[in-house]
């Protein structure tokens, strides 16, 4: 059995303690400076304030100042921080790492540096390099997983992806269990690009529910499922396209990382609810207000993709007719009205 | 403008009259011998008993005995019959056809003759050949479309597929309109295989909702969406695999015909509700009884696929470890308990 130190005690970082503790590992859950209230509650033996559950037996909660102690003797460092926290987390864990140390990360996102998109495992590697630590091949988690379900031991199939074969095999074996089923993939670019993009597209797939209500419809079999399915299918098409552009395997968009994660985000995630408000005709600010402070990864990723597409257009790397749904979503994220450009869909698939 | 005669006045055959009439075509809707009650109501000026809507203005309802009159001068014959009715319909329309006549069909299904799977356009062609009529290249409809939504002019994106380039282009241009968006594809085998298989897989994706309720859960964000998403993703994987086996383009499983149609069937269709009853633990017979006589295409297609898989196994055309979800669905359709084989999933995608 291994000792695993998780940095980040939000929903997903904490949910990961269930499959790991159930496998018999020693798990130490370290809050970031944003998690002080969470760690205080957990140390007092009370439930996690967001998950509304007690930690699994044996999992030890620690505050950010205790990270050094928490990492002492750890076999694995896991990052449970948000995408915005990856660079910060890299700086925190760099002193704790030596070459070959297994690092697992659940953050999902993309960075745009003005020239190219980077997936977060590569952002972390760059940050570690800047801190003088090389020889780390992070393993990232993609695929459909709602934290509150994982913490209730719902059957979950996810993907671990990394460039280090040894680290990938080690972490896959260490984490997989009877309800947390880990499937390894070497397609880091494809899996991680889908993991980020699915939030953007889930916003758009959510439009149909709002548009239906806007015209007076009730939920049920007859709604705007045709509209929803068309946007879902186009999302898979565009994810395949973007994965190809960044050099990943487009097939990753057609299993757990793309289609699977988009399904779960739409059915169980907040991003779909945000899209519904936009479909109902609320302004961007009104829709944001309805979400009561929830992190909207979709707006972050759409800002990244808006800048990427502008550069791709400038370079004529893609045609202006390509990625019509994502272009519309980028516009909606800047205040445009919802008006799905169906007639531009399925280029390259229809023939 | 064209004259279009539709044989079959069920939900989908009738729903097709909306986009065609809105395009200004003359539409004649002919009931089969199963639709006598429907045609009687429509002729009396009352709403369609299943769609609960009046026909669009100008659409003329006719009884099966009036087919000859209805086809007189028609530019297009469309089949709105169920999969079981395709051979019967072929016999009815054969005398009305001449080489090159455009034939559109909305029936979805697969036939197994003991040696190979056939898609319904090919079944129809065979039937027409037996009746002495060659030179017909039927165009079939695939992709996500709930009839009750089409008849309410909900934005719909579907696929027309056929082997005759002229017929495909003609019917695509004739039918496409502001809310019925037709995307042509030459991948008849892929599109039509997905159109049939999606019913089988939608039953399985529906298990999660029932399993969640069975353990006392309420609908909401925290349910068994992780389970559902994993079965959805595996369904896309297995549809791609089967499309490859039958000689189609596996990419058809990753846009409207596969992913899109599976989404709509699960969100708005009866097949997902049937799967929910099975997930809740009802026996096959109890679940069938709950559906109150609704046609369960999933059981028909699972019977076809059970026989196909048995032959493929016998020939060692596939390994016993392949198509694990479909094998389980075939077993459930013969009375086995729901027990999704997640550990066997994603072979060939995970690496």
Helical stretch tally of chain A: 16
Cα end-to-end separation of chain A:
54 Å
The oligomeric state is: homodimer
Poorly predicted runs of chain A are none
Report the sheet-strand fraction of chain A: 5-15%
**Which outline of chain A best applies?**
globular
| N to C succession of SSEs of chain A | EHHEHEHEHEEEHEHEHEHHHHHHHH
Helix percentage range of chain A = 40-55%
Number of strands of chain A: 10
Task: Give a short overview.
Two copies of one chain form a homodimer. With 351 residues, chain A is an alpha/beta fold. Helix content of chain A is 46%, strand content 12%.
Plain-language structure description:
2 copies of one chain form a homodimer. With 351 residues, the first copy, chain A, is of the alpha/beta class. Helix content of chain A is 46%, strand content 12%. In chain A, helix 9 (188-205) runs parallel beside helix 12 (256-268) and helix 9 (188-205) packs across helix 15. Chain A is globular and about 60 Å long.
Q: Which terms summarize this structure?
A:
eight-stranded mixed beta sheet; 12% strand; two-stranded antiparallel sheet; alpha/beta; globular; 351 residues; 46% helix; homodimer
Q: What is the strand and helix layout of this fold?
A:
Two copies of one chain form a homodimer.
Chain A: E1 3-7, H1 11-15, H2 17-22, E2 26-30, H3 36-43, E3 60-62, H4 67-71, E4 76-79, H5 86-93, E5 103-105, E6 110-112, E7 117-119, H6 120-130, E8 139-142, H7 147-150, E9 156-162, H8 165-175, E10 180-185, H9 188-205, H10 207-214, H11 225-246, H12 256-268, H13 270-279, H14 284-290, H15 297-314, H16 324-332
Parallel strand pairs in A: 1-2, 1-4, 2-3, 4-5, 5-8, 9-10
Antiparallel strand pairs in A: 6-7, 8-9
Helix pairs in contact in A: 5-6, 9-11, 9-12, 9-13, 9-15, 10-13, 12-13, 13-14, 15-16
């Amino acid at each position: 059995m291994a000792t695993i130190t998780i940095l980040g005690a939000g929903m997903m970082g904490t949910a990961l303690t269930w499959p790991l503790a159930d496998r018999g590992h020693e798990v130490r859950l370290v809050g970031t400076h944003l998690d002080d209230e969470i760690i205080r509650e957990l140390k007092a033996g009370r439930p996690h304030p967001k998950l509304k559950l007690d930690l699994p037996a044996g999992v030890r909660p620690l505050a950010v100042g205790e990270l050094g102690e928490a990492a002492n003797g750890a076999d694995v460092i896991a990052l449970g921080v948000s995408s915005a926290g990856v660079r910060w987390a890299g700086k925190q864990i760099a002193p704790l790492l030596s070459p070959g140390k297994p690092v697992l990360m659940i953050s999902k996102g993309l960075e745009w540096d003005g020239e190219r998109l980077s997936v977060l495992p590569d952002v972390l590697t760059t940050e570690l390099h800047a801190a003088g630590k090389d020889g780390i091949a992070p393993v990232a988690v993609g695929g459909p997983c709602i934290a509150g379900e994982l913490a209730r031991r719902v059957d979950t199939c996810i993907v671990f992806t990394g460039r280090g074969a040894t680290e990938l095999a080690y972490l896959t074996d260490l984490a997989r269990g009877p309800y947390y089923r880990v499937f390894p993939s070497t397609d880091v670019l494809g899996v991680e690009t889908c993991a980020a993009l699915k939030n953007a597209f889930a916003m758009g797939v959510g439009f149909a529910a709002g548009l239906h209500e806007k015209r007076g419809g009730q939920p049920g079999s007859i709604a705007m499922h045709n509209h929803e399915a068309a946007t879902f299918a186009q999302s898979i098409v565009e994810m395949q396209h973007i994965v190809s552009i960044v050099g990943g395997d487009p097939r990753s968009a057609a299993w757990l990382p793309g289609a699977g994660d988009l399904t779960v985000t739409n059915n169980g995630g907040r991003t779909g609810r945000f899209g519904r408000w936009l479909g109902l005709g609320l302004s961007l600010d009104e829709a944001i207000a309805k979400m009561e402070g929830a992190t909207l990864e979709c707006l972050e990723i759409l800002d990244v993709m808006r800048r990427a597409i502008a550069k791709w257009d400038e370079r004529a790397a893609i045609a202006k007719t390509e990625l019509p749904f994502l272009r519309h979503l980028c516009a909606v994220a800047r205040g445009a009205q919802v008006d799905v450009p169906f007639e531009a869909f399925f280029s390259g698939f229809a023939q």
